[in-house]
Design brief:
Strand content: under 5%
Helix content: over 70%
Distance between the termini: 100 Å
Order of helices and strands: H
Largest sheet: none
Number of strands: 0
Radius of gyration: 29 Å
Number of helices: 1
Shape: rod-shaped
Oligomer: single chain
Length: 68
């Protein structure tokens, strides 16, 4: 009976270790995904800012042409 208790204890410890490893891996995947999403969002925002700046500059050129 003692061996059964030891085996059960070892199984329980191994399961706990495995589950904690799975949780850590899941958290790391979530963190990596959040970083990727943030980079993508910043890239899109930067792209939109450049487009807006180009439009603003084009409008200024048009206004300058009208003044002259």
């Amino acid at each position: 009976m003692r061996n059964v208790e030891q085996v059960s204890s070892v199984k329980s410890e191994l399961l706990d270790i495995f589950m904690s490893m799975e949780v850590a891996e899941h958290q790391q995947r979530q963190k990596s995904a959040a970083v990727r999403n943030l980079r993508a969002r910043r890239g899109i925002e930067l792209h939109n800012e450049f487009k807006q700046l180009e439009q603003d500059l084009a409008e200024l050129d048009t206004d300058d042409d009208l003044i002259q």
